[in-house]
User: Fold these one by one.
Assistant:
Number 1:
Amino acid sequence: MSEVQPSFRIKRKAALSPAEYVEGILSGNRTVLSRAITLVESQRAEHQAIAEEVVSACIRHSGKSIRIGITGVPGVGKSTFIEAFGLSLIEAGRRVAVLAIDPTSQKSKGSILGDKTRMEKLATHEHAFIRPSPSSGSLGGIAPKTREAMLLCEAAGYNAILVETVGVGQSEIAVHSMTDFFLLLMLAGAGDELQGIKRGIMEMADLIAINKADGANRDKARLAQQEYQHALHFFPPHPNGWRPRTLTCSALTGEGIVEIREVIFEFEKKMSKNGWIERQRTEQASYWLRQALEHELLSRFYASEQVKAKLPELDAAVRKGEISPLRAAKALLKLLPQ
Ligand code: GDP
């Protein structure tokens, strides 16, 4: 036992106080930033307590960035695109943090950003920070953590935040609700249905980029771009005055990447000037308060011993039609301490 104790003690000593985390983050220390995000993602109450303190202290140093949501179905080229686009942002003098929300990663063992081989240059660049999606829990559990990780990255000096997600529905709404600009990556000739892209997701897009516009695919991509541009005319105008754009690009050759960057910079300039980014972020903060409340209430409900004991019985009664679902729900809610 005495042999393991010294290393244990060293490890314990390395545990940082909230103030040390904050200091490390504000000085741009990536290791400390990484460890702080691990605390944010942790399920353990003592970790969450420290994380809350750290995030609260960092919040007033956050916000000085453009927050970009990126989505598209698996295979559209998101990882390849983020590598090229991230490097192009760095070329323009930005510091880039890449985060992800992938509620499916539990099943597919962290597919999204898990495999960094397509982002090798970006991953090792001193001005980039890449963090895969938290791999456990539901979207309701993951998304708020990614949002807090984003605030910590901003406090650490990253001024372009990319939040990636897969094109599978709800997770887009979460990403859209924490970013300023929403970029939808598409392929030519795959058909909207095939790409699983719902009208609602297209409606959220500030820019649709048709990727893989290279080689024999170039003309098809241009055609698709025109079609999408046409389709976008039928959507209601955005209240901020921005007209969604369409572009083609090749994440592989780098063609069109700078144009995408410049469209986003134009958006950032206009929407900072007219105050939209700030107003939108205020609305988003309020939205996340409500999300957090719902998530917290639900977690407490299902964690309650009384609920756990009574739920199967009432569930069975509801299934048999002996009691209405609403009545059963009210009976269960009464079991919670008021
Ligand atoms: P993700 O699943 O959306 O992250 O897509 P990946 O970045 O993993 O890319 C899927 C495949 O498409 C890989 O084989 C890439 O090399 C390829 N790919 C990505 N972007 C392009 C592109 O612009 N042109 C071509 N020709 N292939 C690409």
Note: DSSP finds 15 helices and seven strands in the chain.
Number 2:
Amino acid sequence: MSSPDSRIPVAVLGATGSVGQRFIQLLHDHPWFRIAELTASERSAGKTYAEAADWYQSSTLPSEIADQVVKATDPEGTPLESRILFSALDSATAKRVEESYARAGHYVVSNASAHRMDELVPLMIPEVNPEHLALLEQQPYGSGGILTNPNCSTIGLCLALKPLHDAFGIEAVQVTTLQAVSGAGIPGVSSMAMIDNVVPYIGNEEEKLETEPFKILGRFEDGEIKPGCFVISAMCNRVPVVDGHTLCVSVRLDRMTDLHEVEDALRGFTSEAQALGLPSAPAQPVHLLSEPDRPQPRLDRDRDRGMATTVGRVRKCPILDFKFVVLSHNTLRGAAGGSILVAELAIAKGYLGDLQAPKS
Ligand code: NAP
């Protein structure tokens, strides 16, 4: 007789989209979580997942997911049973429903921008700001809560900035992004707009990159986040790459240092997520490459199951102090994988009520 499944049942909200599909891929055989419910828009509700979703992943859609009936995303009309809801909803829908779910006792771990900058909502990168989880204790949602994931480019940027911020302090950052089409969701940008082309505009993206890092790299003190104090200028471009955002970054540091120290700080970066051995944590959050032509999306985005950020071409900058290239997988580390790691950390540190990792 097979033993009962002791994994924590979870729901994926917005399960049919680009990020929702990654959640399904990653949660399908997750050691702590089991997909119990899937939601999407009224267009998809009532259909099987296979009927509702255009499956764009290279792995096969698991058969038990294909046959699952998609529910409406409607906290009042269609209540959910899972305590943890991984949200891959568009921002307008997230704004409308995520607080209601939290009030109903669910922990919403969201990829949407709707609540990222709310004062009591942690904007989490587990390796960067684990202490911000304490904000959950102040949220007005009773036995529920909201946790968020930063913008997909912000995640790669902050993972590379964190060791430099800790070791030398940061004064100024200039970042130019080359962002993959999967970041625009499904169906995303049309092929006529994207093939043989670069689009030098992504709605609201520069604003997110120019604000979210201050919260993420802020100090948690006296129950609140004191935002990081530096300036960021961002330029965001959509390029014909399927997955993986590339960022060309220049930084001015608070303290004078040399190239070796900068490389050592990046190379030596590790965190509590690694020490705890969380299932989705990469062995090493940042990989530093020495080859002159790396990182590249096709070659480096899947490093450590798409959860590691790759940095290369670290060199002196004649305008600021140092410059380098960062590559991070936007729908894995930058979205679904990042959220799952947030939930793992929150459970491991006892922030999600009585939810506990199943004994292996
Ligand atoms: P997407 O492919 O457009 O998927 C959106 C999902 O939301 C679909 O499941 C869709 O369901 C559902 N939805 C749309 N309107 C709805 C409504 N009125 N009520 C209920 N559900 C509705 O978008 P995505 O790229 O996966 O992004 C999802 C979220 O993650 C967004 O907030 C985005 O900003 C954020 N994010 C995306 C990335 C990325 O790289 N793609 C990275 C980080 C964060 P139907 O199929 O039924 O329409």
Note: The two ends are 18 Å apart (CA to CA).
Number 3:
Amino acid sequence: MTLTVVRIDQNSPTGTVLDASTPMIRIDDEGYTRGDGVFETMLAVDGSIRKFDLHLTRLGNSARLLHLPNPSEDSWRSASALALESAGNGTPSSLGAEHTVKLLISRGTPEEGPYGLVVVSSVPEATIAQREEGVKALLLPRGHDPAEDTAYPWLLAGAKTLSYAVNMAVLRHVRSLGAQEAIFTASDRRILEAATSSVIMARQEGDRLRLFTPEPNRGILPGTTQGAIFQGAREAGWDVGFGPLYPTDLMESDGVWLTSSVRLLAPVTHLNNQELVLNPGLTGELMNFLRSR
Ligand code: PLP
């Protein structure tokens, strides 16, 4: 995969393009050795970054929780524009040419301190395919309730940190069982979030269809894609609601989707090997809420 990398630091607040084929991370970089840093992953379509404001707000919040300096909004915008200009072709899709744009702040080395990176790559075709093909998901315990972490700032609830080893381990686990995605549950079986996405569900209530998602402020990552879909739905006059949701809610729903910035939304075709209701028309309507955001 071709990567384009732009670095932001004190000497270069608007960003410098680095040669991605040469070493650029020092061995004592604490982003690398301790996962001590934060990131955002965004989608660019035809060179324009979707939901940039929402990502910058969440990055600022993550950086604050970790006491990391956050480059200014202008720095991120100019470095991202530079990275996209320098990047190769995006992956063609029905939306346009798609790139993944990752913003990252690392604690850096003890001598040099923190810095920011913008990393641009084309979106894998398999990721785009999941928007239509959907995914099989398994419910797995998170081990403890992340809502309990919200009282303790050092547990970094709601921060998008570089420490994603657990999220990757759970994906390897479900793949070994023939599924593609894991949906975490709390000790009381409440639905939380997927390994790298949020969960939304539709339920027909009388003559109205209502969208639901687990409460975003109870220790899970507040998803910008879920937020944008709910905003679009509200503006279109739909009802939206927040958890608690339990496995039976998903099993008996009128559709479940995993939402994230690059994949956008993937219908869940099977949950714990049980077939779920699929509604391609509704998937299209939810996708439309994201077109302008
Ligand atoms: N939850 C987790 C744990 C994630 O890692 C992500 C995205 O990476 C999301 C939810 C979805 O967030 P967004 O829609 O802002 O990409």
Note: Residues 41, 193, 196-198, 221, 223-226, 259-261 surround pyridoxal-5'-phosphate (CB under 6 Å).
